[in-house]
Amino acid sequence: MIRTGLCLLCAVLALGLGPAAPPADSHSAPLARQLAQILASRHLEAIAAADPTAPDRFVGALLFPDVQLLVVAGRLAPPDAARAQLAARQYKDVYLALTASSAPDSRVFFQDLKADGLHADAGEGVDVMYEHVTKQTIFDGKPDKARFTAADGEYARLLSLLVAEANAPSGTRAQ
């Protein structure tokens, strides 16, 4: 009787400890890796682009190879200085302006450790998103699924803009 109960308990525990759920899809992961690869191959530490969602909105990134990718987006007023810096390929200056003087209510900042996109699963690293300067979301394997999906979608959108800028021929860069 005890042996049967012990076997039943072991079977129940084994079922509960089955294979882990497959990792959540990260739309930002391939784009972050692509951007990091482009920047590293061109020996660039920064990239920036205009964000087509608003005429005064920009996005910038700073890469620390094999360590992290920092991406910030927000509104700059007036936008003329940032547009001139983009035209002159002064990407780090745009990035710095976004971190220092973009409108706080418009700012979103991603700290992508390992420069490999956001990950919802534990063991993939810890990434952080800041919104409006002070609202922090940590992606450490325990995020709210809807929150992760929204953040990953926005991060992927911003990375797409930066990849497009990095791949644009010199004469056709976004202005």
Low confidence ranges: 1-23
Total of DSSP H or I helical runs spanning 4+ residues:
5
The best one-word shape is globular
How many distinct beta strands?
6
The whole-angstrom Rg is 21 Å
SSE-based structural type:
alpha+beta
Determine the mean pLDDT. 84
The strand order across the widest sheet is: 1-2-3-4-5-6
In this structure, how is the largest beta sheet organized?
A: 6 strands, antiparallel
Pattern of helices and strands = HHEEEHHEEEH
Q: What distance lies between the first and last C-alpha atoms, to the nearest angstrom?
A: 78 Å
Taken as a percent bin, the fraction of beta residues is 15-25%
Helix content: 40-55%
Keywords:
about 180 residues; alpha+beta; six-stranded antiparallel beta sheet; 5 helices; 6 strands; about 40% helix; disordered N terminus
SSE blueprint:
Elements: H1 2-16, H2 28-41, E1 46-50, E2 57-64, E3 68-75, H3 80-87, H4 91-101, E4 108-113, E5 127-131, E6 135-139, H5 145-167
Antiparallel strand pairs: 1-2, 2-3, 3-4, 4-5, 5-6
Helix pairs in contact: 2-5
Your description of this structure?
- There is one protein chain.
- The chain has 175 residues and is an alpha+beta fold.
- It is 41% helix and 21% strand.
- It has five helices and six strands.
- β2 (57-64) and β3 form a beta hairpin.
- The longest helix has 23 residues, at 145-167.
- The model is unreliable at 1-23 (pLDDT under 50).
A few lines on this structure:
The chain has 175 residues and is an alpha+beta fold.
